[in-house]
User: What shape does this take?
Amino acid sequence: MKIFKPADQIQDLQYFGEFGGVNPSISDSSTYTFLSAKTMFDTFEGNAEGCYLYSRHSSPSNLYLDKALAAMEGTEAANVAASGMGAITSTILQLCGNEDHIVTSRTIYGGTYAFLKNFVPKFGIQTSFVDITNLELVEQAITPKTKMIYCETVSNPLLEIADIASLSRIAQKYGIELVVDNTFSPLSVSPKQLGASIVIHSLTKYINGSSDTVGGVVCASQAFIDSLKNVNNGASMLLGPTMDSLRSASIMKNLRTLHIRMKQHSKNALFLAEQIEKLGIKTVYPGLKSHPSYDLYKNMINENYGFGGMMTIDVKSLEKANELMELMQDRNLGYLAVSLGFYKTLFSAPGTSTSSEIPMEEQEKMGLTDGLIRFSIGLDDDIFRTFEMMKTCMVELGII
Assistant: This one.
């Protein structure tokens, strides 16, 4: 059996610019001309290969990035969007309508949670939030009206691991879609190879990696991508979450170094997680043997890219969490900021930031404590020096 290697898939793509450039030319147009009226008609109908209609539908720059990301995830096609939420919401609304039902993880990105909890009920769509690691609960939540199981490979912010292969078998049993947000684990995990129907990324994070652009992508079958872009009923076409061509070209360049960056993010995160856990601080990282899904995740990942760059620690109170983050920022260890995938370490208290949309009672049920700090570990060259500086901060604040 041939082993799927996502970085090789990206490496093997070779584009030439309009004038022979090693980077593809950027299409700086919102609309495109046609040599005949019939070609315009055919393009509207989706029957004219290689012709462009209007940049809200597609552009050459976006299609270059589409092709690269589809190759990375091993899907037939992909469609980029102006944000991760643009990709997520378009996918959900394309698959679900009035009286349909979704089963999802209780621990997902706060924006996705808010969309499913507060927004889609306006359209008659209902959602059951379950412990995605409990396969019995997942299956029990499925009803005759369920259209999809939605999860994150590694959940935000609690770093729970979804057993994608088992969830895929459940989805196939009931004839529904398995949609996986793979933002936290690009290259490390290939959900399509494990049975997912649709794979989503926030390109803002690791794939772009420089915290200067927002973007998203849906990787799926050609038929589903075509349905998203359909001029009559496609959610991506009609809702308009269009990525700008200049941004698309920028992400395309950064994608080329993703394999190098993910190795360093993972290496640094594993070292810090091991050392901080030894200090007696509750540490959650999928690469620690203390993680409840360590064995599962170890068998899911491409070992070349490790267990990812995300970890959490619990310093027991919001006051201590805030003090530690402020001190670490003051010592140039990183930034007190949301998001992830930057070259510097980013840290935040998710209960009051990226997961603040989740009601407090729900946060308590899922174990999202006040003292929890989420780290996106950076690309530090001397990670031992970083650890010693972090340890000094913790000692000064009486955390250890």
